[in-house]
Write a structure and sequence with these properties.
homodimer, 337 residues, alpha+beta, 4-stranded mixed sheet, magnesium (chains A, B), kinase (chains A, B)
């Protein structure tokens, strides 16, 4: 025991002390794989079922300090977020998640309990999405990096792309908009605002409503998840479909966000616009879709706009100044090495 | 132009200057996808064919300074290596590579030509393996990180795992052993040894002999690729199969490596053992397999040992001191942040 440690306190074991192979055993111990995983960890590769002869695949990388902060989120939340954003991409194609593989890079002095939290969060969200973690890679990296690849099964259906929106369609959303961005603003402000706990939780680990796509027999004409910001992601649908989209601001108004913006203005003199969280805040992983105008919207979906002839995305007929979508290399701050 | 730049020299464009979306367009421009890629980049996820209702998947992460150095390898070589090591894992299950997805993290000041080189190398090796790059993710990271996920099709065959070796089987290898480790030793020594160019090239970008598995109608009982070192990787087969493996040192002798070890001893006083490169050097991505003793070895395979009752791996009946296999978190050097 280090002489400076309080008596009785056990210094956290690091991944270097435990070793790569013991850590892999620990990560995989007692896990029950989803039915789609025919061969799980332990060989050169995993084997996954693809019942209809195709599979959907999406991959995302999360870098510490860029996509998450260990002082703002628990390892469990970070693990959940890493799986959720990939599962949402798979569901946004109209497919049911089946399995995930995860590559994790971390420093040798990373406490084992941080890896425990990450993997628990990942398994928890993978289960929520209907899959399991079939394998991965574990490497040493000075900055923590999590790379998730997610797989999904279309169950014989056609994929729902971004290019199927037609003039006259209804634009509808399922899930919350702007909550992740608002939660991030609270964390960045350092303010302690108790009623904002749900928004901060929404930032730390989004909960995409997978069921609003997967449980419905009727399917939208175009679909995506809101990862870069509502205007940016609807812009992708408008571009890919060759149509214009107009949103109804009244349908986007969220009293919880309005109240929070007011409190941040009063308590920490922060000038924020709740509408910007809704229109440009990413990472909520809500689903947004174009539905045929004749069809009744399934439960969980709410109408926020419509598809018109033309191009671009407007709100109440007006173009918005700057979409504010996420762009990886924007910003002049130097990379920390 | 910066005043300190020589007249007429164009400063390399960085990924920040080009921007994420223009860089993604540049990466994907003019690419021809493999037949298995039903939907490529541009939507929430890709769609890949899996004709026999299953797919093989492997993922690996490569971290700059840990798995590659931009001053030791060209971006093209690094891209090839990233794809090759994943394709080798897929082939080591007996499957034919069909597609890859790639997540790339790089600093905002990375020259665009570095990304060009990486992606060219990736596409080149993906084509060599029989697949293409169906999608990916591009994020900002202070240290370069490449995460590749590879997919393969078993064509109706059973997967070839590590657990199928039986007492009496012949152990055979296809591809070179120890060349990557020897090439690394040359790079690390700083010595300029012209005849070692092939070994250095083998370290910079391995060329796994995919065809020795994929083109053969007869299949081995157990198979893996040599990524961690021959003894370590055969140890996995011995453990998984519940058998012992004995190697014949005479069959492992490589005159090119012996000659190099002698030159390093004479010219830079480096005390190296060529046998250690063969037994413990990883990253060659040769294939090693257990074949039924009755069957004739297909072209490209050479006998190096046999499967016995018992456990562990020996050379000429002797246990080796320390397997020397790669372990990610070993080594006391601090992580550079």
């Amino acid at each position: 025991m280090e002489p400076t440690e309080p008596l009785g306190r056990v210094r956290p074991q690091t991944v270097r002390e435990l070793g790569e192979f013991a850590l892999i055993d620990r990560i995989n111990a007692g896990r029950v794989q989803a039915p789609a995983v025919l061969l799980g960890p332990g060989d050169d590769a995993a084997l996954i079922s693809a019942p209809d002869g195709r599979f959907v695949v999406s991959t995302d990388m999360l870098v510490e300090g860029r996509h998450f902060r260990l002082d703002w989120s628990s390892p469990h939340d970070i693990g959940r977020k890493a799986i959720a954003q990939n599962a949402a991409d798979v569901v946004a194609m109209g497919a049911a998640p089946t399995a995930f593989v995860v590559a994790l890079g971390c420093a040798a002095d990373t406490p084992v309990e941080v890896v425990d939290g990450l993997t628990e969060g990942m398994w928890s969200e993978a289960g929520r999405a209907g899959g399991s973690i079939a394998g991965g890679d574990l490497v040493r990296s000075p900055r923590m990096v999590i790379s998730v690849t997610a797989f999904g099964d279309l169950r014989g259906n056609a994929p729902i792309t971004r290019s199927g929106a037609r003039v006259g369609d209804v634009i509808a959303v399922a899930g919350r908009l702007g909550w992740s961005g608002a939660g991030l603003a609270v964390l960045a402000s350092g303010a302690e605002i108790a009623p904002a706990a749900d928004l901060v939780a929404a930032h730390r680990a989004p909960r995409p409503p997978y069921g609003v796509v997967l449980d419905e027999p009727t399917r939208p004409n175009a679909l995506t998840d809101v990862s870069d910001g509502l205007l940016a992601d609807l812009g992708h649908i408008a571009d890919a479909s060759g149509v214009a989209i107009d949103l109804d601001s009244a349908a986007l108004w969220d009293p919880a966000l309005e109240a929070l913006a007011e409190r941040l203005a009063v308590e920490v003199a922060l000038d924020v616009d709740a509408a910007q969280w809704v229109l440009a805040g990413g990472e909520d992983h809500a689903f947004v879709a174009a539905w045929s105008s004749g069809s009744e919207l399934p439960l969980g979906w709410r109408r926020i706009g419509r598809v018109l002839a033309g191009q671009g995305v407007t709100v109440d007929g007006l173009r918005q100044p700057g979409n504010g979508g996420w762009e990886s290399f924007r910003g002049a701050e130097p990379d920390r090495r």
